[in-house]
Design brief:
There is one protein chain. The chain is 14% helix and 27% strand. It has a three-stranded mixed β-sheet with strand order 1-2-3, covered by helices on one side. With 71 residues, the protein is of the alpha+beta class.
Protein backbone atom coordinates (compact mmCIF):
# COMPACT_ATOMS: atom_id res chain seq x y z
CA UNK A 1 0.00 0.00 0.00
CA UNK A 2 1.32 3.45 -0.89
CA UNK A 3 2.01 5.85 1.97
CA UNK A 4 -0.53 8.59 2.62
CA UNK A 5 1.00 11.90 1.55
CA UNK A 6 1.23 14.54 4.22
CA UNK A 7 0.15 18.02 3.14
CA UNK A 8 2.72 20.78 3.30
CA UNK A 9 2.34 23.27 6.10
CA UNK A 10 0.52 26.52 5.49
CA UNK A 11 2.38 29.77 6.05
CA UNK A 12 1.99 31.29 9.50
CA UNK A 13 0.13 34.25 8.03
CA UNK A 14 -3.26 35.74 8.84
CA UNK A 15 -5.65 36.30 5.93
CA UNK A 16 -7.05 39.34 7.76
CA UNK A 17 -3.82 41.24 7.02
CA UNK A 18 -4.65 41.33 3.31
CA UNK A 19 -8.04 43.06 3.59
CA UNK A 20 -7.92 46.56 2.14
CA UNK A 21 -4.75 46.01 0.10
CA UNK A 22 -4.53 46.50 -3.65
CA UNK A 23 -5.25 43.09 -5.21
CA UNK A 24 -1.98 42.85 -7.15
CA UNK A 25 0.11 43.87 -4.12
CA UNK A 26 -1.78 41.41 -1.92
CA UNK A 27 -1.10 38.57 -4.36
CA UNK A 28 2.62 39.40 -4.49
CA UNK A 29 2.80 39.54 -0.69
CA UNK A 30 0.97 36.21 -0.34
CA UNK A 31 3.37 34.46 -2.72
CA UNK A 32 6.39 36.00 -0.96
CA UNK A 33 5.06 34.67 2.35
CA UNK A 34 4.83 31.15 1.00
CA UNK A 35 1.26 30.59 -0.19
CA UNK A 36 1.36 27.93 -2.90
CA UNK A 37 -1.79 29.18 -4.62
CA UNK A 38 -3.52 32.54 -4.56
CA UNK A 39 -6.98 32.94 -6.03
CA UNK A 40 -8.65 36.32 -6.70
CA UNK A 41 -12.40 36.19 -7.09
CA UNK A 42 -15.12 38.73 -7.86
CA UNK A 43 -17.89 39.22 -5.29
CA UNK A 44 -20.47 36.44 -5.43
CA UNK A 45 -18.30 34.11 -7.51
CA UNK A 46 -19.39 30.49 -7.53
CA UNK A 47 -16.53 28.35 -6.25
CA UNK A 48 -15.97 24.80 -5.13
CA UNK A 49 -16.08 24.11 -1.42
CA UNK A 50 -12.98 21.90 -1.42
CA UNK A 51 -10.31 22.96 1.08
CA UNK A 52 -6.81 23.12 -0.39
CA UNK A 53 -3.92 23.43 2.01
CA UNK A 54 -1.65 26.29 1.00
CA UNK A 55 -4.26 28.26 -0.95
CA UNK A 56 -5.28 31.82 -0.07
CA UNK A 57 -8.50 33.23 -1.54
CA UNK A 58 -9.27 36.90 -2.08
CA UNK A 59 -12.63 38.47 -2.81
CA UNK A 60 -11.74 41.56 -4.83
CA UNK A 61 -13.99 44.63 -5.14
CA UNK A 62 -12.89 47.71 -7.08
CA UNK A 63 -9.30 46.43 -7.21
CA UNK A 64 -8.99 45.93 -3.43
CA UNK A 65 -9.19 42.84 -1.26
CA UNK A 66 -12.54 42.94 0.54
CA UNK A 67 -12.25 39.49 2.15
CA UNK A 68 -9.53 36.86 2.47
CA UNK A 69 -9.65 33.25 3.65
CA UNK A 70 -7.62 30.06 3.60
CA UNK A 71 -8.40 27.03 1.50
Amino acid sequence: MAPIPSPSAEPQDSPDGYVGLDAAAAERRARERGWAAVRSLPPGAIITMEYRVGRLNFEVRDGRVARAWKG
